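Troubleshooting log. The previous structure file for this entry was overwritten by mistake, so regenerating from the original sequence record. Sequence copied from the archived sheet and checked twice against the printout by T.R.
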Amino acid sequence: MSALGFSNIMTFYFFSLLVSTGKAELIHAVVAATQKIVHAKAYFCDSMAEIGFKRNRRHSPRQRLAPPYIMLTAGVALRGVEALIDLVACYVLLYVLAAYAGSTIPGGGFYLGDAHLVMGVGILLAYYIVPEAIWGTTLGKLVTNIRVVKESDGGLIDWSAAIVRNVLRPIDGLVLYLVGFIVICVNQKRQRITDKVAGTIVVRRSAHAESVSHELR
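Regenerated output below.
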């Protein structure tokens, strides 16, 4: 429904209500109609927020609306594409390491021995931890225009949060990432288990730090 259509409907409702009431009930009717308009407007704004619109009003640093009204969290589809890109990048890194160790297999496969396996794990952790701690992104997040930020204030995450969310990544990766996928789908902020533990959230890069603030008026 357009804003103009909404306005016309509410104006007609207000006019009809006044006409149908007596003079003694005029003030009561005006108050009741005003309350209904306010409630309907709030419902309309909430509906717009759910499909990605932000409320067109200014907020001082101490007067911010809590999510989900203005928080532009990254959706499941974007998170899936990002994860796939990062998975391919990790495969390339491990394949290069296997090629260096002379343990590649014809057809694109490879295997890593004990020492090189430890090196591979370290490379994968560094791939996620270092860029997330410095820039809040990985290659997959950069391509999909999303980033990981602090849940509390929308700022860049620190090293401890980057380490926690990635060292515990295997928890979300259980059953081919089915666990992480289910958790993201069922919670409003689209957080994985490790996001909840680390106090982080993945948002679109266009979202300002204010957009993920949890401060209320």
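The longest helix spans residues 76-101. Archived copy saved in two places this time.
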